[in-house]
Amino acid sequence: MGPHAAVFPFPTLNDLYAHHRPRALAIARRIVGDTDDAEDVVQDVFLRLSRQPPGLDGRATWTTWLHRVMVNSSINWLRARRRRERLTHAPQETVSPEAHAMGEQMQRHFNEALEEVNPQQRQVLYLREVRGLGSAEIARLLRIPEGTVKSALHRGRQRALTVMEERGQRP
Predict the structure, then answer these.
(1) Region label for 58, one of left (φ > 0), alpha (ψ between -120 and 50) or beta (otherwise)
(2) Which element (helix H / strand E) includes 23?
(3) What tens digit of pLDDT does each residue of 35-53 get?
(4) Residue 149: which residues within 8 A CB-CB, separation 6 or more?
């Protein structure tokens, strides 16, 4: 290499973290709703990156990949928080044991049916039904048209109900 050749060092994980942390934090904050919790998600994602760097295959840029990972990690974090909250909080209202068992069974059946729904529809359903986000907010968050969100909601619900009916699980 000659004296005038440009050297472009590969960015370190610290460089990537410093540069992309604000964007990653904003994505996580929009989904989980709390700055401290969002920071936990960002730290977890970059910690996983330090252990196993992404195998980017050239189809997506680093920022596109990071956005997708942050959205998915934030949603997974919310699911885990919801599970933890169910374990630590007693039911607020008095419900008969039979009704409680039926509600849990229906939730389990619905969650199992969601596994048969395509990933985009599953993600949209989760953001709508669990997080309570509106169509416009989901569209902005996932960077898809609002019409696609509405279509995914409709098709996802229909598919989940069909799967439940095929399994003999009445909604």
Answers:
(1) left
(2) helix 13-32
(3) 888 998 998 888 887 776 6
(4) 124, 135, 138, 139, 142
